[in-house]
Amino acid sequence: MCSGSAFGRLIYYVLPDTIPVQVAILCTAAGMNVAITRTALASTLILAFLPGEPEAIPAILMASICSLFATSYMVSYHCKTIFVVLTVIIVVSRNLSN
After folding, report:
1. What SS3 state is found at 76?
2. What is the secondary structure of 18-40 as a DSSP string?
């Protein structure tokens, strides 16, 4: 989770006006945690309630599920790359609408 929060801060510093820092940190931490542990719902709940951000549950859950699908076994490496890029676009556009 520590590397996820570091990457979340990096995303926030690169795109400061597009996504809140809390959401960036929690979503990247959830994505990395789910990629390793394969526990989408538990990671979402832990990362939402420990820092006191229950409003971020939809964004964290979406990042967790996208990570779960992106790190599953796929037929081709290109399919996985396209899916990851689309996932990032969806997460950013979802957070922009909020």
Report:
1. coil
2. TS-HHHHHHHHHHHHHHHHH--H
| Alpha carbon distances (Å) from 93 to 1, 38, 89, 96 | 23, 25, 6, 5
Residue 21 and residue 18: Cα distance in Å, rounded? 9
Contact 27, 35 (CB under 8 A): no
Residues 29, 3: Cα–Cα separation, whole Å: 7
Q: Could you tell me what percent of the chain has a pLDDT over 90?
A: 32
More confident residue, 86 or 76: 86
**What's the mean pLDDT when you consider all of the chain?**
83
CB-count burial class (<10 Å; 0-12, 13-18, 19+) for 5: middle
Which token pair is 16? Answer: 């400061």
Which two tokens mark 64?
């967790």
